[in-house]
Write a structure and sequence with these properties.
With 469 residues, the chain is α+β, with helices and mostly antiparallel strands. It has twelve helices and seven strands. Helix 1 runs antiparallel to helix 6, helix 2 packs antiparallel against helix 3 and helix 6 runs antiparallel to helix 7.
Length: 469
């Protein structure tokens, strides 16, 4: 039964890896379409870009060569930077050879907002929206990584084509790295499954051989029994027809020697078979011990992977997937046992300003410290998870909304009293919190809608406060 369970778990792992690979294959296809649409949208903006855009569009329609794509991306980036420095070179009637027209001075160029929009800008806007959606999808697949969210922020802040090209290049690298990781994990799981399958086949072969040996031994016993009975029957017949005592003695001795010889052969054969069987049993015992060790190690590895899959890499607290799982359990427990469960949604105030002024490393440090402060007041029965970005969610089991409000205010004050300093300047970090309590008819969406509404009020009323819904 345990063997079947192991095999089922490994097959489940393989199916999960295949499903993940399919998702990333879909992401890759979407990215190919996005690049093609971007190339189409940018075509005709500048003659220096057209040839490179055609090359990029052709590259994504065939098997991707990372070196080729990197070269095309670098060339596009250099061209866009040159366009920003030198001004546009839109296709049109060629100037006379005798006449040179100097490009406009950089300070004379109109701002981007006042330039006439090329015909493909509407398509470009739609493509950027799709890229935003793609990055949100990547963030949901890997809640522990802050890179998709950071790229989304950079994409929204991209002020020129060069910045946009750099962001898209990083998005392509992210998709490729994620696809490579999924493929590597799948190969590793497949290799482990192959080893276990081999061990199971060895055990099946051993059991089958044992059955064959048992049948052969039973057949040998039947043969010996028949031969002995035949000798006895022959002896009985000849003894009945013989009147010569000396001849009868010789006959009995001969038959008994034949029986004894057959019994000795049988015993020797059985002993040889027993020795061979014992050796096979010992080999199989060693194999089973080895398999048990591998299985224990594999279970530990799978448990560690499960913990890792449920943990936010940056902060060390639970991630969005773990929160969804735990919240579903608490909703069901609430319906059955009427247990009070408070839901607290935290948001770091003006977090984008910290990232913009001091960099993402400083923002990451703030996230870690805030997570540590929240976790310090969490009981064993409670649950703390990073919901995404600068938001955290706490589930306080056995706690009413009024009790949760007192706890939340204590946490809020503790975080406001924490000392942060970046680039030699002190920085004050505060948090806001929306609180609600699970109801019998709640589902995850209704709970978060109430908590989000309370959090929105806390933000509008000046931040650094907790409000219950």
């Amino acid at each position: 039964m345990e063997t079947a369970d192991w095999k089922a778990k490994y097959l489940t792992a393989i199916r999960e890896m295949e499903a993940s690979e399919q998702r990333w294959s879909a992401v890759e296809k979407a990215l190919r379409r996005l690049v093609s649409r971007l190339c189409a949208a940018a075509s005709g903006i500048d003659t220096r870009l057209d040839g490179q855009l055609d090359a990029a569009s052709a590259a994504v329609r065939r098997d991707l060569d990372p070196a080729e794509l990197k070269a095309i991306g670098d060339s596009l980036g250099d061209t866009v930077l040159a366009m920003e420095r030198e001004g546009p070179a839109v296709a049109g009637p060629k100037a006379s050879p005798q006449r040179e027209v100097a490009p406009p001075a950089p300070e004379a160029r109109p701002p981007r907002s006042s330039r006439p929009a090329p015909a493909g800008r509407a398509e470009l806007a739609a493509t950027l929206t799709a890229v935003h959606g793609l990055l949100e999808h990547l963030a949901a697949l890997d809640a522990g990584s802050g890179l998709p969210a950071a790229l989304n922020t950079q994409l929204a802040a991209a002020s020129d084509d060069a910045a946009l090209a750099r962001v898209l290049d990083q998005v392509a690298d992210l998709v490729r790295d994620r696809s490579d990781a999924v493929a590597s994990d799948r190969r590793e799981v497949a290799a482990m499954l192959g080893q276990v399958t081999q061990r199971l086949e060895e055990m099946t072969e051993f059991l089958s051989g044992s059955t064959d040996e048992s049948n052969a031994a039973r057949s040998d016993v039947d043969t010996l029994n028949k031969e002995v009975m035949a000798e006895v029957a022959t002896l009985s017949t000849e003894a009945a027809s013989s009147n010569d005592l000396a001849r009868l003695r010789t006959l009995v001795a001969s038959r008994l020697e034949a029986v004894a010889s057959r019994v000795r052969e049988f015993r020797a054969h059985q002993e040889s078979r027993f020795i061979a069987h014992a050796a096979r049993v010992e080999r199989m015992r060693s194999r089973i011990i080895e398999l048990e060790k591998q299985t224990v190690e594999l279970h530990r590895g799978l448990a560690a992977e499960r913990r890792h899959a449920r943990t936010d890499v940056l902060t060390g607290v639970a991630n969005r997937a773990s929160l969804d799982e735990r919240l579903a359990e608490e909703i069901e427990r609430r319906r059955r046992f009427k247990t009070a469960v408070a839901v607290l949604v935290w948001d770091i105030d003006l977090f984008k300003k910290i990232n913009d002024e001091y960099g993402h490393r400083s923002g990451d440090a703030v996230l870690r410290e805030v997570a540590r402060a929240l976790a310090a007041r969490k009981r064993a029965t409670d649950h703390l998870a990073r919901f995404g970005g600068e938001e955290f969610v706490m589930l306080l089991v056995g706690t009413t909304v009024n009790e949760a409000l007192r706890v939340a205010d204590g946490l809020r004050e503790a975080i406001a009293a924490m000392k942060f300093g970046f680039r030699g300047s002190p920085v004050r970090v505060t948090v806001s919190c929306g609180i609600t309590e699970l109801a019998d008819d709640d589902d995850p969406q209704t709970v978060f809608d109430r908590a989000d509404a309370a959090l929105y009020r806390a933000k509008n009323e000046g931040r650094n406060r907790c409000i219950a819904a």
